[in-house]
Amino acid sequence: GDLNSIIGGKRILLGRSLAEKLDMKLGDTVHADFPDARDLNLTVSGIFDTGYASVDEKTSYVSLETAQVFLNEGNVVTQIDIKLNDIDQAQAVAGQISSDRYEVQVWQESNPEIVESLAYEKASNMITLLLIMVIATFGIASIMNMLVLEKTREIGMLMAAGADSSHIRKIFLLESGLLGLMGALLGCAMSLVLAIRLRSLQIEMPTGGMVDLPVILSYQDMVTLSLIALILSLAAGIYPAHIASKLDPVESLRG
Fold first, then answer.
1. Fewer beta carbons within 10 angstroms: which end of the chain, N or C?
2. CA gap 74, 69 in Å, rounded
3. Within a domain: 102
4. 224: CB partners within 8 A, 6+ apart
C-alpha cells in the first residue's frame, strides 16, 4: 500500500502482525470501536513491516482528521511529540514552550526507569574505571620496587658521584610519573580510535530503521582521567623513591 493513502479518507495502515492476526488484506474493512468514541469503518490501504512483530502487532496509523472524528474531539490535537538532536536540551526546550495552555513532560519524567538505569550504569562504570586505575597503580609501584632492586649499584654510583637523597628521589618519581603519563596518553589514543570506529557502525532500532551507534567523545573526561592517572602513578612511586634515597652508597656499590 501507500503511506499517503490515509490522508483525506477513512483509511488505516496496519502492522503486518496485526493484519495477520485480524486476517486483513489490502482493501478489507476493519471496524474500529472504543468507549466514548464514534464507531468507524476503515479501509485497509496499507500494511507495513518494521521487522519487529511485537511493534507491528499493536501499531496502526490513520490521518489526523480520521482520529479526530473517531475520538469525537473536534478539531483538536491531544498530544505532540518533539524529537531533539540533543536529549540533554529537553528541560530547556520544555521551559520555553511550557504555559497555562500546554502541559509539557520531558522524557526524564515519562521514563524514570531509563534515568535510573543511566545513573546506575554511569556509577558502575566510574567504580570499575577507578578500580582498574588502582590496580594499575599497584602495578607501577611493583615495577618501581623491582627497579630499585635492579639499579642498586647504579644508585650507589650516583651517590658516590655527589647525588644526594633528593636527587635520587626525584629520578624515581619522574620515572614513575612518566610511566603513568605514557600509559594515559596511549589509552586515550586507543580509546579515540576505537570510539571513531564505533561511530561508523549502525544498529537496528526496535521500531525499525538503522541509526548510527551513539558514541559520545568527552575530551574533558580524557584530560581529567589522564591527570588522575598521573597523580596515582606519582603516588605509586613515592615509597620506592624513598627506599632508593635511603640506600647506603657503600652497600649499594657492593651490590
1. C
2. 7
3. no
4. none
Of the candidates 233, 150, 255, 253, the residue with the CA atom closest to the CA atom of residue 185? 233
Instruction: Quote the percentage of the chain above a pLDDT of 90.
Output: 15
Q: Give the pTM.
A: 0.56
Give the number of domains in the chain.
2
Domain annotation covers residue 100: no
Positions of the chain with pLDDT under 70: 204-211, 250, 252-255
Where residue 210 falls (left for φ over 0; alpha for ψ -120 to 50; beta otherwise) is: beta
Cell matching residue 74: 473536534
Q: Which domain holds residue 51?
A: 3-78
Chain centroid, CA 81 distance in Å: 23
Residues 140, 132: Cα–Cα separation, whole Å: 12
User: Which pLDDT belongs to residue 18?
Assistant: 92
Q: What are the backbone dihedrals phi and psi of residue 47, each rounded to the nearest 5 degrees, phi first?
A: -130, 125
